[in-house]
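Form 7-S
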Amino acid sequence: MEFLKKLKNFFAVLIFICIVFSAEAQEIHFWESDAVLGARSRDSCSSQCADLFIDVFSDICCAVLELLWLDNHLNMEFDEYPYANESKYIIYDGVLSDSEAEVLDVSSNGKFYRYTLESGAFYFPEHALIGNETRLEGYIYKFFGPVIENTLYFGNGGSNNSNYYSQNDILRGNLRIGGTFNFVNFNIINIAANFQWTYWYGAKNHNGVNTGVIVRSYPFKPVLIEWRGNWQVLDSPHYNSETDPCILESHLELGFMAARYEAYAAWKYIYDGYLNTQDSGIALGLKVHF
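Output:
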């Protein structure tokens, strides 16, 4: 790992410069305190130097983290799908040797892109709701790409879901279109943020903004773990609310791979501040990774 060696050397040099610079600054402040400012306490000068050191050291740490992020994201590829060819999913530095690739009858290089198409059904028992969620999510290049989602909610009218629907309001949909950006890209933990335009349709039509986070883990074959959290703010002035409402969603998922296909079970939760209601339930679905 030649890059890591160079990075350690670079980091050590920067720390040395930081210490020397801080010591020099402290000496300047010391003489300034004796010769010019007499009344200013040396404790104050030491405090200023300590603050200076912290600022410089923080800048160094940020620069190192940026370099690590670049190395992590630019020197990785994706395998054909999770747990393909004896790998978990994310591979580094071209990953497979030519001999390994020949034995496995695959390319020695990974892909710079990946996509997942999924569809599943869910059930919220408290309000007797069933629904369907369909998603297309992926990276067009290693760490950024599209996220398109459409969710349908079907009610049966009646009093058990009166907070969500009236007798004539039995269908509600939510379309979200946007993108995702990855921050941490490892097999054991993978973290990305998503930003989307959101549109609710059906009996009522509303636009808004959705922000969220996607956390994944590929712990061991054939298991996948995923959590998605979302926060929506809508343009809905006619809703009556004493607070600033929002919609919160949580989706915790356990999946199992078979070739490039994944079957999953999930727990879902939704809080709708506009309708002042919440619910949770289970979801089952299928994914294809490509």
